[in-house]
Design a protein that fits this description.
The chain folds into two domains: about 220 residues, 3 Solenoid (Pectate Lyase C-like), CATH 2.160.20; about 100 residues, Single Sheet (S-adenosyl-L-methionine-dependent methyltransferases), CATH 2.20.130. The protein has a 19-stranded parallel sheet that branches. The radius of gyration is 23 Å and the shape is globular. The chain starts with a helix and ends with a strand. A hairpin with a 5-residue loop joins strand 28 and strand 29. It is mostly beta strands. The longest helix is centred in the first third of the chain and has 11 residues.
Length: about 425
């Protein structure tokens, strides 16, 4: 409990009583709640929290204001069309947590982040594409699109790229990445990201039978910075060849495709693998497995040794609600927490990662056990009178037994008034 008091005392000194909590409940079970996320987002003021109860909802856009949009803890929140975050400036920041976003509209990515100076923090979200009419012109898009955004963090999210197709034998539509980013800085901390699979070889209405298509990269970045820590990133599988007459299988895609001299990637404790090659049936050749990463134009990749380090905590939590903080890393490492009410983005080669929480307090956590785990009981202390909510960014920093100091994967915790 002393840990809670130290952390919250530092944060609530700057907390604003003007922050409100807007509740979204499509079931109608919460008096005064909004029926849709979009309406609540539009009504919210800078710094508010939109708390979403379980249900199916339409997509929404957050533009030019700080906001937290979070599913109620344990709720199944499905968003059935595109979500966008656009136009954040300065210290504005948006947190999305606990959403499953499935794009069904034409044409659109499931999630778009564009033209943001401020931070975009996405945690425990699942981004999906539902291919209703394969091959319809303009339909296929990368699942997640990030453009001209300076501080984008994905923590424990999942995304898979759309597969390639040969629609009605009329031509080729190539597989696409799970994340396609341009001129942006990103962190993938935990989670699973998979490139779209190549199309299956087929007989065309004109021309020779087609080989299987090439799998897409899981993540493509042109211009900018990428840290992958503790995540599983896999290129799309190559498509199988055509059986009769036989054609070759397609090559697997790379896990990462970094383009341009201003593009760099750092890897720390991540599982990075190219996609499997497609099968060449009936005696034709199998496709080649994809590479862990490909680069062009002078892009660079640096791989740190060791394992991934992380902090996990349930969110949102009410005042006094019992929970725990779980830290993982190298056995017998000493851990401290860097805590603040603003996200940050400061890469550090020396600390094998990126500082993602603006430090307002540094709190000792303890030493990891022989299994590399430390679990601390945690319950948020009461907030100051008039404060309904506060969002805390917490990042662990570890000193391992040989003296190396390492940034771990952070988390964003939203604390709510006990009456909500």
């Amino acid at each position: 409990m002393r840990l809670c008091r130290l952390v919250l005392a530092a944060l609530f000194a700057g907390a604003s009583s003007a922050q409100q909590v807007l509740i979204v409940d499509k079931s109608g079970g919460t008096p005064g709640a909004f029926n849709g996320i979009g309406a609540a987002v539009q009504a919210a003021q800078d710094g508010d929290v939109v708390l979403v109860k379980g249900g199916n909802y339409n997509g929404f856009t957050v533009q030019g204001k700080s906001l937290v949009v979070t599913a109620e803890r344990g709720a199944n929140v499905k968003v059935n069309s595109q979500v966008r975050v656009v136009g954040l400036i300065g210290e504005q920041q948006v947190v999305l947590r606990g959403l499953t976003v499935k794009r069904k509209t034409i044409p659109a990515a499931a999630f778009v982040v564009e033209f943001n100076q401020g931070g975009v923090w996405v945690e425990d979200c699942d981004f999906q594409l539902e291919i209703i009419l394969p091959g319809l012109p303009g339909y296929e898009r990368p699942t997640v699109v990030v453009e001209s955004s300076e501080r984008v963090v994905f923590r424990d999210c999942t995304a898979e790229g759309s597969p390639g197709v040969i629609p009605l034998g009329l031509g080729f539509i190539e597989a696409l990445p799970a994340i396609d980013a341009l001129d942006s800085d990103l962190v993938l901390a935990g989670g699973t990201y998979t490139g779209g699979a190549g199309y299956k070889g087929d007989t065309l209405l004109s021309g020779p039978p087609a080989d299987g298509g090439t799998g897409a990269p899981a993540v493509r970045l042109e211009g900018g910075f990428l840290l992958v820590t503790g995540a599983t990133v896999t290129g799309g599988a190559g498509g199988d060849g055509n059986p009769n007459p036989c054609t070759d299988g397609g090559d697997g895609g790379p896990a990462l495709d970094l383009v341009g001299g201003a593009t760099s990637g750092w890897l720390q404790g991540a599982q990075i693998a190219g996609g499997a090659g497609g099968a060449g049936v009936s005696g034709c050749s199998d496709g080649a497995a994809g590479l862990p990463w490909t680069g062009s134009g002078g892009s660079s990749v640096f791989a740190f040794g060791g394992v991934a380090h992380a902090l996990a905590v349930d969110s949102p939590l009410r005042e006094g609600e019992a929970s725990s903080l779980t830290l993982t890393g190298i056995s017998f490492s000493l851990a401290v927490l860097v805590v603040g009410d603003q996200a940050d983005f400061v890469p550090s080669l020396a600390l094998a990662g990126v500082l993602l929480a603006q430090p307002q307090a540094v709190v000792g956590a303890g030493v990891l056990d022989a299994g590399g785990v430390l679990v601390l009981p945690y319950a948020p202390s009461p907030m100051p009178p008039g404060t309904l909510t506060e969002t805390v960014f917490a990042q662990p920093v570890f000193a391992d037994p040989v003296g190396a100091v390492i940034f771990g994967a952070p988390t964003a915790l939203t604390i709510l008034d006990a009456t909500l």
